[in-house]
Amino acid sequence: MEAKLLKKQRPKHLNLFKISQPLPAIVSIMHRISGVLLFFPGIPLLLYGLQMLLESADSFEALHTLIQNPLVKGLILMFVWFGLHHLCAGIRYLALDLHYGIALAHARASSKWVLAVSVTLTLAVGITLW
Amino acid sequence: MVKQNGRIVTGAHYGLKDWLVQRVTAVLMTAYIILFAVVVWISSPLDQAKWVAIFGHQWMRIASFLFLVSLMWHAWVGVRNVLMDYIKPVSVRLALQILVIVSLLVYLVWAVEILWS
C-alpha cells in the first residue's frame, strides 16, 4: 500500500521558481549560462578583439579608444567574470570527478569558494586593467 | 546485439568520448591561459609592436591555435548538451546543431587568418 502511494507520486515536477535552490545548483546553472554566453557572443567578440589588436597600428588605436568607453569596459569585465566563473566552477567539477569534495558540506563550501574566487579575480583583473 | 532503443540521430553518441573531450580541452585551455598571463606579465606590452612581437613567435601562434581549437571543441560539446536539454523536436535541434558547427568552423578559419597574416 505504502509502496503504491510512493509510486503514484513520481515523477515529481518541481516548480523551479518556487523552491529555493542550494548554492551548488546556483553555481551549476551559472556555469551553464556563462558557457552559452561565452560561446555567443563571447567567441566572436574575442576573435574580433584579437584581430583589432594584431591587424595594424590603426586598428590597435581604434581598439584602444573603444575600451576607454565605460560601457565597453563594463562589458569586458562582465565577460571576464563569465569566463572566470566558468573556469572556477569547471575546476570544481574536475575535483568532483576525482571524488574530491563529494560530501555535502564540502560540496556546499566549494561552491561558495567558486563564487568568491571568481568575483575576487574579476575585481583584480578590473583593478589591473584600470 | 547492441540495443538501439530510444536512440536518436541528434543524441549524445552515448559514449565516454565527449565527456573526456570536455575535460581534456578544459585542462589545455587552463594551461594556455596561465601561459598567456605569464607571457603578458613578463613582456607587459603597451604598444602594438610588442603585441605583434608576442604573436610573432611560431610557438605562440601554435599554442594560441591549439587553445582556439580546444575552445571550439569544448563549445561544441557544451552547446550540444544545452540543445539536447531544451530543444526537443529533432528537426529544430539538428538545424541548430548544424548552425553551431558551421559557426565554430568559421571562427576557426577566422582565427587562422588572424594568427598567420
Automatic annotation (TrEMBL), chain A:
Q: Name one GO molecular function term.
A: electron transfer activity
Q: Tell me, in one coarse class, where this protein mainly resides.
A: membrane
**What is the name attached to this protein's record?**
Succinate dehydrogenase cytochrome b556 subunit
Q: What is the source species?
A: Nitrosomonas marina
Cofactor(s) required, per the database record = heme
Protein family membership: Belongs to the cytochrome b560 family.
The keyword Ligase is assigned to this record: no
| UniProt xrefs under InterPro entries | SQR/QFR_C/D, Succ_DH_cytb556, SuccDH_FuR_B_TM-su
| Protein's cellular compartments | Membrane
Under the heading CDD domains, the entry gives: SQR_TypeC_SdhC (cd03499)
UniProt cofactor note: The heme is bound between the two transmembrane subunits.
This protein's UniProt keywords: Heme, Iron, Membrane, Metal-binding, Transmembrane, Transmembrane helix
Q: One Gene Ontology cellular component annotation?
A: plasma membrane
Instruction: Please give the subunit comment from the record.
Output: Part of an enzyme complex containing four subunits: a flavoprotein, an iron-sulfur protein, plus two membrane-anchoring proteins, SdhC and SdhD. The complex can form homotrimers.
Annotated GO biological processes are:
tricarboxylic acid cycle
Residue positions annotated to bind heme are 86
Parts of the chain that traverse the membrane = 36-54, 74-93, 113-129
Any single Pfam family the record assigns to this protein: Sdh_cyt
The protein's role, per its UniProt record: Membrane-anchoring subunit of succinate dehydrogenase (SDH).
UniProtKB/TrEMBL annotation, chain B:
Residues that hold a ubiquinone according to the record: 86
Q: Which cofactor does it need?
A: heme
Q: How does it sit in the membrane?
A: Multi-pass membrane protein
Q: List residues binding heme.
A: 74
Q: Which GO terms describe its biological process?
A: cytochrome complex assembly; tricarboxylic acid cycle
The Gene Ontology terms for molecular function here are: electron transfer activity; heme binding; metal ion binding
Q: What subcellular locations does the record give?
A: Cell inner membrane
Q: What does this protein do?
A: Membrane-anchoring subunit of succinate dehydrogenase (SDH).
Q: What is this protein called?
A: Succinate dehydrogenase hydrophobic membrane anchor subunit
Protein species of origin: Nitrosomonas marina
